[in-house]
Amino acid sequence: MAASRSLSRRVIIAIVVVCAAAICVPAVWSASSGPGGRPASARLDGATGIDAAQDGAVPGASTADFTRDVDPFVGSSAGGDTFPGATLPFGMAQPSPDTTSKPAGGGYAYSDKKILGFSAVHVSGPGCPSLGHVSLMPVTGKVRSTSAAGYASSFSHRTETARPGYYAVSLLRYGTKAEMTATERTAWERFTFPRRARTQRQVLLNLGAAQDKTSAANLTIAGPDTVTGSQSTGVFCDPGYRPVTVYFAARFSRPFAATGTWNNGPVNWRGGKSARGTAIGAALRFAGGARQVTARIGVSYTSAADAAANLAAETPHGGGFDAVRARAHRTWRQWLDRIAATGATARQRVTFYTALYHSLIEPNVFSDDNGRYLGMDGKIHTASGRAEYTNLSLWDTYRTQAELLDLIAPDIARDIILSLVSDTRELGWVPRWVLANTETNTMSGDSVTEMFADALAAGIVTPAEVRPVYPYLKKNATEAAPPATHEDGRQGIASYRARGYVPYDPSSQQYFLKSGASATLEYALADCGLSHIAGTLGHQGDEKDFAASAHNYRSEFDPSTRTFRPRRPDGSFLKPFSPSFLSLPYVPADARGYDEGSALQYRWLVPQDTSDLARLLGGRSAAVGDLDRLFDFGRVAARPGDAAGAWTGGGRYDPGNEPDLQAPYTYDALGAPWRTQAVVRAARTVYRPAPGGLPGNDDLGETSAWYVMSAVGLYPYAPGQETYALTTPLFRRAVVALPGPRSRGRPLVITTDGGGGYVRGLTQDGRGVGTAWLGRPALAGGGTLAYRTQAGPDRSWGAGPSAAPADYCGG
User: Which residue from 131, 149, 161, 277 is spatially nearest to 204, judged by alpha carbons?
Assistant: First the structure.
């Protein structure tokens, strides 16, 4: 889901040291310094990136440790909804601070002044509240409040440190330093109390604090240094459905000197060793000599026993917090090395590696160390030979992040697809947006079909592995979901099948019918993918059927406005109608025919048959003209740095929202690739190394993955299609690791000659390439793409209809 953009700049200063109470904390990454504490304008590369004229940064020397080029604070403001805390790639645990405004998903807002606590699990970049379970807060002195707001502490960005796998901050109210790191399924939180507080050093465990309302919780002080329990909360954008329960086992490095519990009131130091309710917690006091206390928190979605088992399995022998932190750093370094890029400015490198970092946080491991996980049917299952994954924001990630994982993490991508196979069979229907073991029914369309189509095209899974879910995919595409189920399925499917469109009906209780025009476009795109799945599995009749319905968008095309216009149940077009009307997320409740977008933006959601789209618009030249108006092309081509201003309002291109993410690459499909190169160059300037540096919600890596793919110059224009659209790479050299047998260890090396932002020639392993497209199979074995570039546009390279690729579902 999208969010508003912030274009404020950060002031560049050097390393600072701030003393709060008795603690002086060096700001290794401060709010206004670059990664590792160096100024953000420090020299990093010897060559200048192609966007440098707009970026204004200074190039410098290269470094091999790309974790230094990651700023976890990016996206923590202006609705990006990311979190700065610690995690491993795709990890189950994400210990991170929660601040007073409780922003959706990440739990942390850069503009907030107080921290409520540090919870063990988070989601990066969604648009609805999610997780935030098992909150700890170190405090000193008498506990006067058990409300998180009551014991919250102020903090300063100048004492914050955030690096991949590590976070630290000084709590000014208590003079206490809090540090976070993580293993795959455990959160590690180390608290260093001030020397002056020799008594009443406590950690508060609050199971009433979370991003959504706690519906049930329990805890037991299970030993002299251990607390176990669980916390259940509402679910994302659908809080009324089955709750998400997180089990935990927290073991502390020192024994408790005293313990107390509370239940919607003050701490009872003489009470029992357990509590149950919706506003419960525990106060854990440590002896006066215990200046430093580390909490190790195993988490699980199956049981407290499995949480304890995860903790035991992932606790290093003979090592503590620092050993785990070092391991987390090594893990992130190895993952970020999968794209080794050089030859850009300092700011561009931080923007790129932060985007790659955010692209690798979700989906999350859902199975325990022993393979057990809670299925969509509410039963315990065991993942054998693989991991089960959850937190699948499919409406977002099928467009960008899924394809990035196909490229650089095919083993993870495979497990994600097999997890969707399990989800579908357990649910009895296809999912759309999975949180834990719950279908949230968030957003529209049929994104899971695109996920399966793309995985088949990329060779991530075999036809035999997809075959068991095909009946569910077909049923979802042809029938309404049973009324007794929670799943929405394809709302409006009867009209879509019979009349070719989902009607716009503002009086309906079904959200898709309030966004009927965009639902029609989404269904048609999914039908294209489903036709390819059917063909691969040998269902030729279905292949033909869905290839035909992949063109149902024609039923909503209005020649008078040159847009896909909502139709009412009686078949008439919506009146009055404004193509530039922008439907924001769930506001208003009547989306006026479009889900998070305008008619101008959704006009381009036909990547399956761009030739047909051009025909509807009056030909390729007319279509290019319409695209030019969407982007305000003359302005952004001449001044790429003006992109944010040019695209604000009027229903124009939104680089941070899903419906038109692929729109810049439509020029490639129309035979005008130099225009793609100009617009992508402008869009990259909207991403910045700053808290407000994302153009919208990161949506579990979807927004960041757009930047990563566009920076290396390979973009999945039509999900499921075996081609990449090309654009000028950002870097002088990028070495993309290609794990898996097809590459035989050979990477994909992408180079440019530094001549400018426009392509004048391209070779693949020395052979000339005259198109702005390359097939995935041709790149799967690695090799070298060498771009020749120039400062001005080359209107001949890759140009004309003959250079365009075959349409994914042409006909």
Answer: 149
Residue reference for tokens 């699948």: 392
Closest to 242 measured CA to CA, from 416, 429, 485, 473: 485
| Overall pTM > 0.85 | yes
Alpha helices in 11-62 (DSSP H): 52-55
For β-strands 748-752 and 783-790, DSSP reports them as parallel
Pairwise CA distance, residues 478 & 246, whole Å: 36
What HEC string does 122-181 produce? CCCCCCCCCCCCCEEEEEECCCCCCCHHHHCEEECHHHCEEECCEEEEEECCCCEEEEEE
Phi, psi of 162 (to 5 degrees): -140, 120
| φ and ψ at residue 161, rounded to 5 degrees | -125, 130
Cβ atoms of residues 398 and 450 within 8 Å: yes
Contact of 809 with 551, CB cutoff 8 Å: yes
CA distance 738 to 782: 7
* DSSP per-residue letters across 771-796: SSEEEHHHHHT-EEEEEEEESS--SS
Confidence of residue 580 (pLDDT cuts 50, 70, 90): confident
Alpha-carbon dihedral 494, 498, 500, 501, rounded to 10 degrees:
-30
List residues bridging with 748 in a β-sheet. 736, 783
Identify the residue whose tokens are 């305008």.
598
CA 90/CA 412 separation, integer angstroms: 9
H or E stretch at 96: strand 96-99
25 has a pLDDT exceeding 60: no
The mean per-residue pLDDT over the stretch 204-222 comes to 94
Integer Cα distance of 721 and 614 in angstroms: 19
- The pLDDT tens digits for 72-112 are 999 999 889 999 999 999 999 999 999 988 766 789 999 99
Q: What beta strand segments (E) does 310-379 contain?
A: 339-342, 364-365, 372-374
User: Whose structure tokens read 């716009």?
Assistant: 504
161-163: strand order across its sheet: 161-163, 166-171, 176-182, 186-192, 292-300, 244-252, 226-233, 214-223, 274-277
What integer pLDDT is reported at residue 436 of this predicted model?
Answer: 94
CB 392 within 8 A of CB 363: yes
How much is the mean pLDDT over the chain? Answer: 89
Tokens representing 462 are 């075999």
Q: What is the pLDDT of residues 132-178, one digit of tens each?
A: 999 999 999 999 999 999 999 999 999 999 999 999 999 999 999 99
Question: Does an H or E element contain 462, and which?
Answer: none
Q: Is there a cis peptide before residue 576, judged by omega within 30 degrees of 0?
A: yes
DSSP, res 700: G
pLDDT tens per residue, range 738-766: 998 777 889 999 999 999 999 999 999 99
CA 370 to each of CA 83, 119, 186, 305, 650: distance values in angstroms, whole numbers, following the listed order: 28, 24, 14, 11, 52
DSSP-derived letter for residue 504 is P
What is the dihedral angle through the alpha carbons of 197, 201, 203, 208, rounded to the nearest 10 degrees?
A: -90
Tell which residue, 56, 58, 54, 57, has the closest CA to residue 639.
Answer: 54
Compute, in degrees rounded to 10, the torsion defined by CA atoms 718, 417, 352, 704: 70
